[in-house]
């Protein structure tokens, strides 16, 4: 196996990016980028901390983040598994990266920035859904933002219903939990009860 071990080797292999790959990157939102974010109900949020890296899905029925201004995004922390890996990381290393998906579009949007966690009562109240507020909101200051071309989404056929996977072909969460916990948690009961539990604890 031949391994790349230097920046010189890497750059020689890939060459110099063309202007269309570099001109799109700016340190703030432009109207076009704002429109893309406001149309995105889902993003992956990447963070780093002493224990390692974390990449966590975030989603809402509407825009997954709120644009406060051209340099600031607000991301509520909705109900989850309470591992708080992402939040622990942000407390110790504020750097974050977000990848926004737009259902039906091949383009994605990337944001790199720095986050702090706010528990301001008025801010939390502004994100209430079904009388439930998030416990915290990540206030993200944008360092850089740019769109990613559609090649990866097109290659994956991500929005092509004909290529969607039948969930019955996959191992269920209950089955995985039962195997890893030697039957202490999970199993068929977990899978059967999860849809109702999720509806009751969505927010």
TrEMBL record:
Record Pfam families: PNPOx_N
Annotated Pyridoxamine 5'-phosphate oxidase N-terminal domain residues: 31-149
Gene3D superfamilies the record matches: Electron Transport, Fmn-binding Protein, Chain A (2.30.110.10)
Xref: NCBIfam families: PPOX_FMN_DR2398
InterPro entries: Pyridox_Oxase_FMN-dep (IPR024029), Pyridox_Oxase_N (IPR011576), Split_barrel_FMN-bd (IPR012349)
UniProt-recorded name of the protein: Pyridoxamine 5'-phosphate oxidase family protein
């Amino acid at each position: 196996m031949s391994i790349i071990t230097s920046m010189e080797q890497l750059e020689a292999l890939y060459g110099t990016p063309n202007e269309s790959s570099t001109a799109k990157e700016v340190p703030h939102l432009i109207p076009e980028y704002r429109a893309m974010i406001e149309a995105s109900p889902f993003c992956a949020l990447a963070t780093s901390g002493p224990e390692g890296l974390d990449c966590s899905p975030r989603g809402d029925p509407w825009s997954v983040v709120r644009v406060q201004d051209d340099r600031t995004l607000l991301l509520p922390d909705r109900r989850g598994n309470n591992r708080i890996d992402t939040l622990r990381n942000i407390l110790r290393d504020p750097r974050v990266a977000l990848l926004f998906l737009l259902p039906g579009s091949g383009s994605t949007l990337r944001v790199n920035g720095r986050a702090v966690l706010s528990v301001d009562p008025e801010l939390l109240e502004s994100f209430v859904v079904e009388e439930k507020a998030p416990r915290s909101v990540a206030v993200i200051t944008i360092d850089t933002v740019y769109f990613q071309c559609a090649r990866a989404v097109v290659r994956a056929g991500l929005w092509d219903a004909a290529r969607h996977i039948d969930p019955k072909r996959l191992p269920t969460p209950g089955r995985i939990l039962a195997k890893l916990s030697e039957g202490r948690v999970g199993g068929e009961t977990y899978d059967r009860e999860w849809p109702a539990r999720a509806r009751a604890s969505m927010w």
